[in-house]
Design the sequence.
């Protein structure tokens, strides 16, 4: 018997998304009122607070070397209750674990890539990313949310006449892609990330340029055709992220956007 309509093939994803679809995304601006700029990014079941504070000084190495302008640095941490099993705080171990150190350096590089540091003046911008809940993509959420928090901070500094010019050159966002059961997928949740044969993170500017690519196989390899498809999916994802960032920054209220 003929069906009255064509049936869509079942989704290979645990949450029913299409391969080229990101998870639901929202920003709650002003989440940390004492920060110069802040937002809570909720991306699927991943939630990260991104807060920006500004100090009217620069690192000692910049002073010693006579480097003009300002600096941007980041700190990243996962709160103990952000995962199913309690994650010990870095302070209890007496050191930052290697993963957190890698991610906070990545956040700093991503934001410095889209800022004219000379226009900052002699200031240090601190970006703090605290993961409330982790379900894959915490580093990409931290970068994407940090840009919104930084743009809000810059807006406030300009309103207070502490910045003469806007130092932001472009938006920046990040998204994950991967091969799961050998199928290219965009924006992996934890379940997908844990079983992926290939995992890749793309950091891109709104100008369409790459800041960083992080990709590796897990007991697997990938060919150029698969790489090109993952890059295509990544571009689809970051374009969606830029649109959501613009919506968040054009909103007049501090509520979710």
Sequence:
């Amino acid at each position: 018997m003929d069906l009255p309509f064509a049936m869509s093939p079942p989704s290979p994803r645990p949450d029913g998304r299409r391969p080229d679809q990101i998870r639901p995304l929202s920003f709650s601006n002003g989440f940390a009122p004492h920060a110069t700029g802040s937002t809570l990014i909720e991306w699927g079941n991943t939630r990260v607070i991104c807060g920006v504070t500004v100090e009217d000084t620069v690192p000692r190495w910049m002073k010693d070397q006579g480097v003009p302008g300002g600096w941007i640095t980041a700190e990243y941490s996962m709160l103990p209750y952000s995962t199913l099993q309690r994650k010990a705080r870095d302070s209890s171990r007496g050191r930052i674990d290697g993963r957190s150190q890698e991610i906070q350096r990545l956040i700093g590089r991503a934001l410095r890539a889209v800022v004219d540091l000379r226009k900052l003046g002699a200031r240090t911008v601190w970006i703090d990313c605290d993961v409330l809940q982790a379900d894959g993509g915490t580093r990409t959420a931290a970068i994407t949310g940090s840009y919104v928090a930084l743009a809000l901070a810059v807006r406030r500094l300009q309103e207070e006449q502490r910045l003469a010019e806007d130092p932001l050159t472009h938006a920046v966002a990040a998204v994950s892609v991967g091969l799961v059961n050998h199928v290219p997928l965009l924006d992996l949740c934890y379940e997908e990330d844990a079983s992926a044969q290939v995992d890749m993170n793309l950091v891109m500017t709104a100008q369409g340029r790459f800041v960083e690519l992080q990709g590796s196989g897990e007991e697997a390899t990938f060919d150029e055709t698969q790489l090109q498809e993952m890059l295509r999916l990544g571009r689809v994802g970051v374009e969606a992220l830029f649109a959501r960032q613009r919506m968040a920054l054009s909103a007049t209220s501090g509520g979710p956007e």
Confidence is low (pLDDT under 50) at residues 1-9, 252-257. The radius of gyration is 19 Å. The domain at 25-250 is CATH 3.30.230.70 (Ribosomal Protein S5; domain 2).
